[in-house]
Design a protein that fits this description.
- This protein is globular.
- Strand 5, helix 6 (about 125-130) and strand 6 form a beta-alpha-beta unit.
- The protein starts with a helix and ends in a 10-residue tail after the last helix.
- It folds into 3 domains: about 5-95 and about 275-295, NadA-like (Rossmann fold, 3-Layer(aba) Sandwich); about 100-180, NadA-like (Rossmann fold, 3-Layer(aba) Sandwich); about 185-270, NadA-like (Rossmann fold, 3-Layer(aba) Sandwich).
- The protein is α/β, with parallel strands linked by helices.
- About 45% of the residues lie in helices and about 15% in strands.
- The strands form 3 sheets. A 4-stranded parallel sheet has the order 2-1-3-4, sandwiched between helices. Strands 6-5-7-8 form a 4-stranded parallel sheet, with helices on both faces. Strands 10-9-11-12 form a 4-stranded parallel sheet, sandwiched between helices.
- The protein is built from 14 helices and 12 strands.
- About 45% of the residues are buried.
Length: about 325
């Protein structure tokens, strides 16, 4: 009997998984994986989560090596919070288009035009941009972070305009000064997409990520981060859900809720950068200890202050990292 290509692929993938687990043990590594990663990468994760959960997990791990299956800004954050650990990004080219839409130079110019405003920086940004910010935020704590700035009525919010608009709708007593950045994946969700899926599944709840456009959020039954989606679905009495965020979310949602059904708001909800990480690249990263992500000097110190302030607001107790 001739083995089909998919059989050969499955066999090869199993070999890679065994190799990765062996290397992980040898290198004293922990594999941290964002919710948008491929299913097979999530299967090997020691920790999965959204940006806030992974920021916290990076601080708490005792492993010598952190393999961050995500994109560059996430690995930078892990490196800043863990200066005594080796942080690896399996695919060097795994960047974030939205993070690239704002630079430190552009933010400095924005600050000069608004000297009385505090700067809240979405974690989906480079270390250099974080270093120019007063405090960071994630999609799960952005509202909480902005409200915590009690001495500031004006807030510069970078780089995601849609998340900033959502925060403005929830914190009307502050003026949010927006940058025109956006997530190329989340803006693919259109009103007509949601209405079409709703027509097919009228009993389904629509859960949207706040990086979606305002007109899409207006259709949502619930708006939250990826971490918030897991909690909401688990507690909801509904059996069907339309998911308005990256397709990688379905892996864990289905695993945690086998009695419930999930549908993407559109088939275009795929982040090319997140999908760059494969089993082959993960094995290559551990075997060759690449690609090391390092943040040094004043950028590291200043960016860490912004991250620490976020963690202090969002955690029950302060989180500290070695060397500081």
């Amino acid at each position: 009997m001739v083995r089909q290509p998919e059989d050969r692929d499955a066999s090869y993938n199993e070999q890679l998984k065994k190799k990765i687990l062996k290397l992980k043990k040898e290198k004293d590594a922990v594999i941290i994986v964002h919710n948008y990663q491929r299913d097979e990468i999530q299967e090997l994760a020691d920790i999965t989560g959204d940006s806030l959960a992974l920021s916290q997990a990076a601080v708490r791990t005792d492993a010598k090596v952190i393999v961050f299956c995500g994109v560059t800004f996430m690995a930078e954050t892990a490196a800043i919070l863990n200066p005594d650990k080796i942080v690896l990004l399996p695919v060097f080219e795994a960047g974030c288009p939205m993070a690239d839409m704002i630079t430190a130079e552009k933010l400095r110019a924005m600050k000069a035009d608004n000297p009385d405003a505090a700067v809240v920086c979405y974690v989906n940004s480079s270390a250099k941009v974080k270093a120019e910010s007063d405090i960071c935020c994630t999609s799960s704590n952005a509202i909480e972070i902005v409200r915590s700035l009690k001495d500031h009525k004006r807030i510069i919010f970078v780089p995601d305009r849609n998340l900033g608009l959502y925060v403005q709708s929830q914190v009307p007593d502050k003026e949010i000064i927006l940058w025109k950045g956006f997530c190329p994946t989340h803006i693919r969700v259109q009103e007509e997409d949601v209405l079409e899926v709703r027509k097919a599944y009228p009993d389904a709840e629509f859960i949207a990520h706040p990086e979606c456009a305002p007109e899409v959020l207006a259709l949502a039954d619930h708006i939250c981060s990826t971490g918030g989606m897991f909690k909401y679905v688990k507690g909801s009495g509904s059996k069907r859900f339309i998911i308005g965020t990256e397709s990688g979310m379905l892996f864990k949602l289905k695993a945690q809720n086998p009695d419930k059904e999930f549908f993407l708001a559109t088939s275009h909800l795929i982040c090319p950068s997140m999908k760059l990480t494969t089993l082959g690249w993960l094995a290559h990263s551990l075997e060759n200890m690449v690609y090391k992500i390092e943040v040094t000097g004043d950028i590291k110190l200043k960016a860490k202050k912004a991250l620490d302030r976020m963690l202090l607001v969002s955690c029950d107790k302060p989180l500290t990292s070695a060397g500081y």
